[in-house]
Write a structure and sequence with these properties.
Number of domains: 1
Distance between the termini: 37 Å
Order of helices and strands: HEEEEHHEEEHH
Structural class: alpha/beta
Largest sheet: 4 strands, mixed
Strand content: 15-25%
Number of strands: 7
Radius of gyration: 16 Å
Strand order of the largest sheet: 6-2-3-7
């Protein structure tokens, strides 16, 4: 919300994400190669922008369409992605880590630093 107020934007989100795979105990940093992409799960937007250009009824890619339809100039790409860790699981609709130039392996300690004790819960769930 602070980004919206301080920068006068209609919406904000992240184009860089940390991904964590608790089964393989690996982590990656993903940097969008698209100029107008922001992660759907990281979007924060004003009701007015959503009312004017609501999400399309798509099985996948509705976040990309929303940013495109609303006009990417109205969005702020947040520089600090430390509040968000995406978890890799069997039902993900996005690309799998490591399958392109946007993916870079990182030491899992970077994720541990952000998730703290919660990380152990993901490990426990992945072995049951």
């Amino acid at each position: 919300m602070n980004e919206l107020e301080v920068r006068g934007a209609d919406a904000s989100g992240l184009s860089t994400l940390l991904y964590f795979d608790p089964v393989r105990r690996l982590a990656w940093r993903w940097q969008s190669t698209l100029m107008t992409w922001l992660a759907g799960g990281s979007l924060c937007y004003r009701k007015a922008i959503w009312s004017a250009t609501p999400f399309r009824l798509l099985d996948s890619g509705e976040d990309t369409a929303f940013v495109h339809d609303a006009g990417p100039a109205r969005f702020v790409d947040m520089a600090d992605a430390s509040f968000y860790v995406a978890v890799v699981h069997g039902a993900n609709t996005s690309a799998r880590p490591g399958t392109g130039s946007a993916w870079n392996a990182v030491d899992v300690s970077q994720v541990r630093h952000l998730m703290g004790a919660d990380m152990e819960r993901y490990y426990a769930c992945s072995t049951s």
